[in-house]
Amino acid sequence: ESGSFNGFTLQGQGSIESSFAGFSAAEGQRFAVLNSDSGVSTAQYGGTTGAILSKSYNLAAGDKLSFTFAFNTNDYLPYNDFALFFGNQRADLASVGTGNSPGWQTFEWTVDQQFSGEVVWVVSNQLDNGVPSRLLLDAVTITPVPEPETYAMMLAGLVGLGFVARRKHAQKVG
């Protein structure tokens, strides 16, 4: 992700910004802002209305998906607006009860088994639609786990270097 969020699907209100509510991009120059004041149902996630950002991934066991996020709200309890991430299970990122993010926070998901499907970020109103909350999202990255062949090639290279060094040493001595 380079601030463009190409390949992502947005349901509801969202935008790509260079600054918002005192935040500038955590990485690069732009980030996504999802707005809960959009009229898209988030009932399947336990909310009323909000915005949903998603992208399909094929991830191997051991791969890491990480991102930075911030939660911005003016709502108050009992209207506990929230933001969440959903890969193979739900992870609550923030809610009105936890308040605004003081800065960018990092979330990392290490895939425990092969995952093929949609990864989803949600910001949602809860119990009302009067005061919107926002999920700011940046620096979505995948760090793949190295394949066993990579380690085998590295080991073979080290053995080869050791052989060459030993041979040079034997030639100097002899």
Give the structure's gist in a few sentences.
The protein is mainly beta.
CA-based gyration radius:
22 Å
- Overall pLDDT confidence: 87
Strand percentage lies at 35-45%
With helices defined by DSSP (H or I, 4 residues minimum), what is the helix count?
1
The beta-strand count equals 13
Helical amount: 10-25%
Describe this structure in words.
- It is a single chain.
- With 174 residues, the chain is mainly beta.
- The chain is 15% helix and 45% strand.
- The chain contains 1 helix and 13 strands, in the order E-E-E-E-E-E-E-E-E-E-E-E-E-H.
- The chain has one helix at 148-173, and strands at 9-11, 13-17, 19-20, 23-24, 31-35, 40-41, 49-59, 64-73, 82-86, 90-95, 105-110, 115-124, 133-143.
- Strands 1, 6, 7, 9, 10 and 12 form a 6-stranded antiparallel beta sheet that branches.
- Strand 3 (19-20) and strand 4 form a beta hairpin.
- It is elongated, with a radius of gyration of 22 Å.
- The mean pLDDT is 87.
Topology, please?
Elements: E1 9-11, E2 13-17, E3 19-20, E4 23-24, E5 31-35, E6 40-41, E7 49-59, E8 64-73, E9 82-86, E10 90-95, E11 105-110, E12 115-124, E13 133-143, H1 148-173
